[in-house]
Amino acid sequence: MKLPLYLRVLLLLTLVGCAWLFWQETPDSPTQTATPVATRPLEPAPPARPVTPTPATTVDLFPSQSWNPPPPPPPPVDTTPPKPPPLPFRVSAQWRYEHQAKIVVLSGNGNQYTLCNRCSVPGRIVPGKMLDAHYRLDKLTDSVVVLTYMPLKHASTLRLDNH
């Protein structure tokens, strides 16, 4: 294949231009003219520490894969404080004897409990005493009975005005 004369000349000029640029950009040739600078005498450098080679980090280009579905996320942790069970007592009777403090009878858990502040009823429960293994009578007034569920130290109020 024979090239026309103008293409041969153009190719020759391109090669000459590339060669000229190549020899102009050599790393040995300075880009700026050097100017003399006053320098201080060099101080002895501290001894160099030996360079320890660092291990090259490897990259796994083909990690193992599985067709199995991912494991389910762990169930959320319940951080709410525990709640006491519903109050198992109900008012079965209440009365007042000759303008004295009110006496209240609660029934629950298969038993009946007589509550009073100051009375001489046998088997009575006064504030500060336990009804059963889990409930303590804290307060007895004409309108409310306050019981504390001891495992959680939770106070519950039983209203007397609607019984």
Question: Which properties best describe this structure?
Answer:
163 residues, alpha+beta, 4-stranded mixed β-sheet, 3-stranded antiparallel β-sheet, 1 helix, 12% helix, elongated, transmembrane
Overview of the molecule:
The chain has 163 residues and is an alpha+beta fold. It has a domain at 90-159. It contains one helix and seven strands; from the N terminus they run αβββββββ. The strands form two sheets. The protein has a four-stranded mixed sheet, with no helix packed on it. A hairpin with a 2-residue loop joins strand 2 (102-108) and strand 3 (111-115). The protein is elongated.
Summarize the structure.
The protein has 163 residues and is an alpha+beta fold. It has one helix at residues 5-24; strands at residues 90-96, 102-108, 111-115, 124-125, 135-140, 144-149, 154-159. The protein contains one helix and seven strands, in the order αβββββββ.
Summarize the biggest pleated sheet.
4 strands, mixed
Computed over alpha carbons, the radius of gyration is 49 Å
Query: Helix content range of the residues, please?
Result: 10-25%
Question: Globular, elongated, flat, extended or rod-shaped: what is the shape?
Answer: elongated
Low-pLDDT runs of 5+ residues are none
Strand order of the largest sheet: 1-2-3-4
Separation, N- and C-terminal Cα atoms: 119 Å
Transmembrane segments: 5-23
Region (Disordered): 28-89
Biased composition (Pro residues): 43-53, 68-88
Keywords: Membrane, Transmembrane, Transmembrane helix
